[in-house]
User: Fold these one by one.
Assistant:
Number 1:
Amino acid sequence: MKLSRITEILTFAAMALIVTSIWMVFRYAPVAVDDAGQAILYQKIMYYHIPLAWVAFLAFFVVFIGGILYLKKQDSKYEILAYSSAQVGVIFTSLVLITGSMWGHLAWAPDFGWWNWSDIRLNTTLILWLLYLAYLMLGASIKEEEKRGRFLAVFGIISFIDVPLVALSIKLWASRTIHPAIIKSSGFDLDPAMKITLLFCILTFTVLYVVFLLTRYQLGKLAEDIELFKEKL
């Protein structure tokens, strides 16, 4: 099956998943309440914030793997794959920072405000965003193909070190973050309906990421083919 056909099928699947996930977030999952019995409506942000973070990690893992494969095989398709995933990952990380800032402001203000420079998870996520933004800028500025491929591969591999730091920051520096540990060793610390909804949203955003990745990868391959065609003229 052609890649374009797979992308088309996944696009329709993503649309169906998005509609279903919206219904689950606002109709199926119960509204969280505080100790006083007051509804915590901003908790709904969780169903988008956590899946966005998961997809950002996944995107940069693909950059990491793509870099290793490029250095091993010197095939431009791995550079295009890694660069495409970084582009999608930066978008999702931007949304992670936005939703995280909103959630933090509503949940922990005035201690949090709109940004808390002492929060280790927030700051390591910002560093992650800056690293891969720099990755994209370097890719756009280096014109020599072979040099660009090697440089981006190494840069992408090294930058991935920040991903586990973000993921484990709550455990490594528990006293320096106010982020709650929703996912524990025993599983999700959530109501069963909330857990099902969160997992469904993670699936939804994962499929959406794959659609964006395949679309951007095909555009990258097309651009490469056009450049090769121009060189032959």
Note: The chain has a mean pLDDT of 88.
Number 2:
Amino acid sequence: MSKIWIILQLCILEVYSRSSLATGKYSTASSYYQNSSCYHPSKGNDGNYVQALACNNCYRGSDPRGGGNWWLVDLLDVYFIDIVVVYTISGFEMQLVQFLVGLANTLGPVVRNSYELCDQYQKPIVVPGSYQVRCNANLEQYSIVIIQQPSTGFGSMAFAEMEVFAAQNPESKVWKKFAKNRLAKPASVTKIVRSAIECVIGCSIIKCYSVNYNHVLMSCEMFASLQGLPAPFILTADVKYDYLKSQYVSLLAIAMKATWIVLLYFRLANAVKNIALFKTATADSTYYANACAVASHATDGIYNTDGYKCECFAGAVKTERGLYYLCNQYEFDISATGIFTLKCNANMPAVRYVIVQARYDLPGNLNACELLVYEAAYPESKLWNKLHDHRLIQTFLFSFNTSSVHGCLIRCNLYKCGSVNYNNANTACEIFQHPFGYVTGNVPKQVIGWDHWQLFYA
């Protein structure tokens, strides 16, 4: 079988088909040059796009280096902000180097690092033009848009015009990857995951800002919010990391350009209904028969992870293994509070009940604060996931040699198997048909030279 590679490149043609939300709205600033009406804050959103320093053409501040150097506009209503565009003044490009775009819902003097961050412009600005910042798609709605010079800026912030565009469809989002880059800030949550996909799923569930994914250590650093953290938010080059950020799908832009986007071949958790929410839940036991620890607390929509707040489920005894269909087994130790995601085997039949059970060799007292369940958006759309240098060491259905992993996976599909091991050196294929799993564990072990393949929904 020949290999067929399909590469999808999104070419976004950026054309303005809507009016800026900011044009003509009330605006104010930390200062304006010589208190002259020529450079009043309103000149920054008056619809005049002439990029020359002249009376009534632009906004120009007078704050010194490290001063306030902020400007804001009140949109008069709340929006999911997607794109903010700033037009420079010829000869004053340096006044906008690495400018910050903030969001707020309270009109008043701007305190540096106190507002929600849309984002910071990442690249140098050395020529006249228009420069856009894409806001994070997991933020709430806001009515105030702030432009601020970083504290290391040149002072006297100035620009010709700015525009604000809201998300066309707030539920339509993609994750953009900044390869070999990392946001060097303290993470809200750090956990070990199996892939970048699992990292961004966890981020989507809690609607976090962005993630760093370390593809060497397989660690996921989630940023719940950047509000309150000191600027700058410029990405740092790091070959071990990829930085991923949620953005709205938009037809707006400035120029024709090719953009590589990490496309997740499944619906993100915040755009799909949690089908376990408020459904009947039961358990084999409850910790000391305490009403604070009943099974229904795991499906009540309350995400508080404090086990002492009467909002979680806690079991009491070590349970027996059941003959139920195995979705999957989480493969890492859990030593801290967090969100832990499992993708189910895509060859299972449709089922009604979802079961969470402790590992067979643990002492009991299973506990969980909330369970979320999402069905396959497209049950016929599936993909194979490879765990490199891993092997499931259990009794397999049968084994044989095949010239490539493709033959191994095709044979597995014919039998609707659970997973396969494939050895690239000796071409050995081990096929597992284990719909109910293995009592002693279903976690592949690290074995050099073997790859473990699992079939998931796309």
Note: DSSP finds two helices and 24 strands in the chain.
